[in-house]
Design a protein that fits this description.
This protein has 18 helices and seven strands. With 447 residues, the protein is α/β, with parallel strands linked by helices. It has two domains: 91 residues, lambda repressor-like DNA-binding domains (434 Repressor (Amino-terminal Domain)), CATH 1.10.260.40; 335 residues, Vaccinia Virus protein VP39 (Rossmann fold), CATH 3.40.50.150. Strands 3-2-1-4-5-7-6 form a seven-stranded mixed β-sheet, with helices on both faces. It holds the Pfam family MethyltransfD12.
């Protein structure tokens, strides 16, 4: 059926969600009927070429890339009901694999941007607000410390002003993305484009079951896609061991794999559970990431409270995990994929044995935060905090109250508080009375 094959609808939905638009807003701005847009995104109909051109212009996205996807979907639509359609499709696939390139070069390839990945607590929509306050309330452009970097969206913004940016996160999957986006080692883009082409022409029918597909296939990922993911991950590892990839190329490929499979996951954005319903089959569409030219990144994977005793800077941005949800458990599949130790898995969510568990998610959070801010050798502290301390969910309830964090910061410096209402979760709803993001800006007292 068409609704299980079409891919341009998935692409258009991903672009829209990544850029933060709601469907009605796109309909209003492009004059494309809301119902038509919904049917296009769910794969129930193909867009017309003028519609694709209008959407490409609105999203500031490559028109050529979308037109190519539209053409490929039309081809699939034409051949799927032909008796020899599948054989003809595989012949075309082989011609692509051994003849034409899917991508000619890195410069002209459509690439994943840093903000394309889904991540709990992502500050993408708040970064401009955060950085505007920091710029107006602080002095100095030497070293910016992002001690809980997460997706590194705030750190990346800081790179526009500061000479040195320190990134730190305890997760393996986040650390490898920093190495990929901000590493300084030279890498061969032509080599990685060739590999991207190779991965995009894999035939899952010819791939054997592997660690990834046996554990996660039919649960977190569609079965055939999971075989491709496992194959690609093993191939990356093999090429690294054979010295066919340097450490930066290795990191770029691993990060590109994470970004590629992020929107294919049968989840709501994290891996605490999977959605228990049939998974729509979609193409892998492996793409590389857009790396950064910033040369002043210093990258760590350490316990934040230990690291702060060995670094110093102008300002530290602090956004720890305030509630009981451990990020190493939320993103256990990415942690597993990056480390590739193939551990034994447990429970319905197929998690390995716990590691990298944060004290900020426990009753020790208050004392741990106090220790952190007291030992940070900086002029300023910028601390993000949201009011999920009012949450009805026990796991979402903050381990440090608003009053406690205010008291701790006031004890180490002169503190100002800024707040902003914002959209929460992925509902598109904004509650101006209840859901707020706070930013505390503290000028530390001289010792």
């Amino acid at each position: 059926m068409l609704d299980t094959i079409v891919s341009i609808g998935d692409t258009l939905k991903e672009i829209r969600e990544t850029k933060g638009f709601h469907l009605q807003e796109v309909a209003d701005k492009t004059s494309i009927n809301y119902t038509s847009l919904s049917r296009i995104e769910t794969g129930k109909r193909l867009p017309t070429k003028p519609q694709v051109q209008s959407l490409a212009q609105f999203y500031s996205y490559s028109e050529n890339d979308l037109i190519r996807q539209l053409i490929s979907d039309k081809i699939i639509y034409e051949v799927q009901n032909e008796d020899l359609g599948l054989e003809g499709f595989h012949l075309a696939e082989q011609k692509l694999k051994y003849g034409l390139n899917l991508f000619n070069d890195y410069k002209n390839q459509d690439k994943f941007q840093l903000q394309s990945r889904r991540y709990i607590g992502n500050k993408a929509k708040l970064t401009d607000w955060i950085m505007e306050i920091i710029e107006s309330e602080t002095e100095g452009n030497g070293t910016f410390i992002d001690i809980f970097s997460g997706t590194s969206i705030v750190a990346k913004s800081a790179m526009e002003k500061y000479k040195t940016v320190i990134l730190n996160d305890i997760l393996y999957s986040n650390n490898v993305t920093y190495q990929a986006f901000y590493g300084t080692l030279k890498w061969n883009s032509n080599k990685l484009v060739e590999l991207a082409n190779e991965y995009n022409t894999l035939n899952s029918k010819s791939i054997r079951e592997n660690y990834f597909s046996k554990n996660f296939g039919g649960k977190f990922y569609e079965k055939e896609i999971s075989k491709q993911i496992g194959y690609i991950r093993q191939d990356i590892e093999k090429k690294k061991k054979n010295n066919e990839l340097n450490s930066r190329e290795y990191a770029i490929l691993l990060t590109s794999l994470i970004y590629t499979i992020d929107r294919l996951a049968n989840t709501v954005g994290h891996f605490d559970a999977y959605i228990k319903k049939p998974i729509t089959k979609r193409p892998l569409n492996f793409k590389l990431i857009q790396t950064s030219d910033f040369k002043g990144a210093k990258i760590y994977q350490e316990d934040a409270n230990e690291l702060v005793r060995n670094i110093k800077g102008d300002i530290a941005y602090i956004d720890p995990p305030y509630n009981s949800r451990q990020y190493s458990r939320f993103y256990h599949i990415y942690e597993n994929l990056v480390q590739w130790k193939k551990p034994k898995l447990f429970g319905v969510a197929l998690k390995p044995e716990p590691e990298n568990m944060s004290k900020y998610c426990t009753v020790q959070a208050k004392d741990t935060f106090k220790d952190l801010v007291e030992n940070l050798d900086v002029k300023y502290l910028a601390v993000s905090y949201n009011n999920t301390y009012k949450s009805k969910s026990k796991s979402s309830k903050n381990k440090i109250t608003l009053e406690e964090i205010t008291e701790i910061l006031n004890n180490v410096g002169e503190t100002k508080t800024f707040e902003q209402s914002h959209t929460y979760f992925n509902t598109g709803k904004t509650d101006f009375n209840d859901h707020k993001e706070f930013l505390f800006l503290t000028k530390k007292y001289d010792k």
